[in-house]
């Protein structure tokens, strides 16, 4: 996976608009967590179970080091920040490429029209005054939220 | 005369049936009915017609069955259920109220349906509020323009004991089996699995009558929501001596079982469909993005990553 070098080179033009995607930089401890998790025994077993070989975890460590540098420089180390953003972008591209490469079916232009079509009358009747109906009304702000976990015990 | 002759043969046949069949009235009835149909067909006079009725192609047949299903759901039409949709596994989908048997009530196995339903709905709501994968799926559906309405899209029902839940493509509704999925983790698994089908239907022109489409969505659901090493071991697809890439075998066999459960296709056709679409569908990990490892923080990580891929925070 070692896609991005620790010291990524960027020219001055790039630096001007370097961190327009700063939202893509995660908190540094998450990169460390991902690396530790990826290189743990359980994860190695899981990788062998799925792929038949170990995955390359080095990119998480590289991102963690770049993130630390970026944080310690109070965001002034644009090179390190840019390296993380590029790494995240590649990570997204790899994941989404597999999604869009799946041409088993046609992609929809808009959501299905019958997504929330009315249910048959007997089913609507059966769903009246159910717990889920009450909770849905609460979520929509049509009912006042009720406290959960109340006891049903009464002293006679 | 002819009818009496038939009944005499049936009586003889019934005596010769194995013990299992004779103790199972449903099977006995099916066998006898089938036999009577054959006898009647043999006895019927053969009239040569110049025009044979038009043969219904597989697709037309399925279309007709789907239309019949929709008619019946709207209150019209016959009460017969096509095997195609697996409605025989979800009796309450037919509009029939579940009737518990006295013997099972006395044994404490049935008779608490309303309590079970309430508990099931409580578990569903807990998962919606606290389950990372369910929250991720609901956010992904909402950002795709398909928001989930709890009372409209999720239903707790009594099902056949062989299933824990299902997705009804006719009504676009998740069925959680209140008699089988009795704890939060099971309900969480059912909701995640079925919401993957919902996500596929929302984002793609998914035709559940197309075996390839069905196989693909089942592969994705098995890949993302099931098939940890333990479940693969219990399923017989992995063992301490067979670990390497055993996950793929687990996904294939789970998807195959799901396809065979809801579609009236031969085993070989189902295997062919799964093999055909497997490489593309196995690598498509949206919207979860990773194959979840049991007892790890993968679920939380997947949920935290959601907004980076354009999914709403639910």
Automatic annotation (TrEMBL), chain A:
Q: Where in the cell is it found?
A: Synaptic cleft
Protein family membership: Belongs to the UPF0545 family.
Q: Which cellular component terms (GO) are annotated to the entry?
A: synaptic cleft
Q: What is the lineage of its organism?
A: Eukaryota, Metazoa, Ecdysozoa, Arthropoda, Hexapoda
Protein's name in the database: Synaptic plasticity regulator PANTS
Principal location class: other
From TrEMBL, chain B:
GO molecular function terms noted in the UniProt entry = metal ion binding; metalloendopeptidase activity
User: Under which EC number(s) is this enzyme classified?
Assistant: 3.4.24.-
Q: Which UniProt keywords apply?
A: Hydrolase, Metal-binding, Metalloprotease, Protease
Which residue ranges does the record annotate as region Disordered? Answer: 46-84
Which InterPro entries does UniProt cross-reference here? Peptidase_M76_ATP23
| GO terms of biological process kind | mitochondrial protein processing; mitochondrial proton-transporting ATP synthase complex assembly
Cellular component annotations (GO), alphabetically ordered = mitochondrion
List membrane-spanning regions.
none
Q: Where is the composition biased (Basic and acidic residues)?
A: 59-84
Source superkingdom: Eukaryota
According to the UniProt entry, the coiled-coil residues are none
Task: State the family named in the UniProt similarity comment for this chain.
Answer: Belongs to the peptidase M76 family.
Name-wise, this protein is Mitochondrial inner membrane protease ATP23
């Amino acid at each position: 996976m070692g896609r991005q070098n620790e010291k990524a080179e960027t020219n001055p033009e790039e630096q001007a608009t370097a961190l327009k995607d700063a939202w893509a930089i995660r908190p540094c401890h998450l990169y460390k967590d991902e690396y530790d998790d990826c290189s743990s025994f359980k994860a190695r077993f899981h990788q062998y179970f799925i792929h038949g070989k170990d995955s390359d975890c080095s990119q998480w460590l590289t991102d963690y080091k770049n993130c630390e540098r970026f944080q310690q420089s109070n965001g002034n180390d644009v090179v390190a920040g840019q390296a993380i953003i590029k790494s995240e972008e590649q990570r997204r591209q790899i994941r989404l490429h597999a999604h869009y490469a799946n041409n088993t079916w046609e992609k929809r232009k808009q959501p299905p029209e019958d997504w929330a079509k009315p249910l048959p009358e007997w089913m609507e009747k059966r769903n009246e005054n159910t717990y889920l109906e009450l909770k849905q009304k609460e979520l929509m702000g049509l009912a006042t939220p009720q406290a959960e976990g109340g006891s049903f015990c009464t002293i006679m | 005369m002819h009818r009496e002759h038939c009944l005499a043969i049936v009586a003889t046949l019934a005596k010769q049936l194995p013990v299992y069949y004779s103790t199972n009235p449903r099977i006995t009835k099916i066998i006898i009915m089938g036999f009577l149909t054959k006898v009647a067909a043999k006895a019927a006079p053969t009239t040569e017609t110049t025009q044979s009725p038009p043969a219904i192609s597989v697709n037309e047949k399925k279309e007709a069955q789907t239309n019949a299903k929709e008619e019946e759901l709207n209150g019209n039409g016959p009460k017969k259920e096509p095997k195609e949709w697996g409605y025989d596994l979800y009796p309450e989908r037919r509009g029939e109220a579940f009737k518990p048997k006295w013997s099972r009530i006395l044994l404490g196995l049935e008779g608490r349906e309303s309590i079970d339903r309430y508990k099931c709905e409580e578990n569903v709501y807990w998962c919606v509020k606290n389950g990372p994968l369910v929250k991720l799926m609901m956010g992904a559906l909402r950002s795709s323009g398909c928001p989930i309405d709890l009372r409209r899209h999720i239903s707790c029902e009594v099902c056949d004991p062989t299933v824990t839940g299902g997705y009804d493509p006719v009504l676009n509704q998740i069925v959680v089996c209140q008699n089988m999925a009795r704890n939060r983790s099971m309900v969480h698994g059912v909701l995640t699995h079925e919401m993957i089908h919902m996500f596929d239907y929302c984002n793609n022109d998914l035709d559940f009558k197309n075996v390839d489409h069905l196989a693909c969505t089942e592969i994705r659901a098995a890949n993302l929501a099931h098939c940890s090493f333990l479940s693969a071991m219990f399923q017989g697809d992995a063992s301490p001596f067979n670990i390497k890439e055993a996950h793929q075998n687990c996904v294939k066999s789970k998807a195959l079982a799901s396809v065979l459960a809801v579609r009236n296709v031969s085993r070989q056709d189902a295997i062919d469909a799964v093999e055909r679409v497997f490489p593309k569908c196995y690598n498509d990990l949206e919207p979860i993005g990773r194959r979840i490892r049991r007892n790890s923080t993968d679920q939380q990580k997947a949920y935290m990553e959601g907004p980076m891929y354009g999914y709403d925070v639910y």
